[in-house]
Amino acid sequence: MLACVLPPLLAGCSGTPTPKAVSESEYNATDSNDRAGSLLGRSDDSVFSFGKDAKKGDANNNGGGALGVNAYLWRGALDTLSFMPLSSADPFGGVIITDWYQPPTGGERFKATAYILGRQLRADAIRISLFRQVQQNGQWIDAPVSQATTTEVENKVLARARELRAQSGS
Asked: Which stretch of DSSP H or E encloses residue 129?
C-alpha cells in the first residue's frame, strides 16, 4: 500500500524549485535599516511608538502612532495595571488581560481586563473590567466589585495617559 502512495507524492515534490541561497555580500547589500530596530522592520515603525512623526498623524489621532488604539491610553493602562501579572496584551485590538493578583493580605484576589476603544484620548475610550474572588473553605468564589472601584481604576489610567501626553510635548 505504501509503495502505491509514496511515488506520486515524491513526484509531486520534484517540480518544486529549491530556494536560492543568499550570499553574505548580497545580504549586506540590502538596506540594513529595513531589518534593524523592531519586530516590524524599520526602527521608526515600532509598535510602541508614540506617533511624534507628522506622517503618522500625531496631531490628528492624539498619539495613535503605529498602534490600533491611542498610544497614551495603551501605555497608561499598562502602567496602571503593572502591579498585576500580565496574561495577554493586544496593542492592535486594544485589549490587556492580567492574570490573578493576590495582595499580601491574602484571602482575596483580583484580575483585570482593559479595553482601549478608540484612537483619541477621551474618557469613553477606556473601559476596565475588574474581577474579584474570595477564598472560602479552600476554594475561590466569585465576589462583586463595586462600580466605584472600576471607575477609580479607569480614572487612574486616564490620568496616567494625560501625564504621558504632557511629557511628550503634544
From this structure: strand 126-136
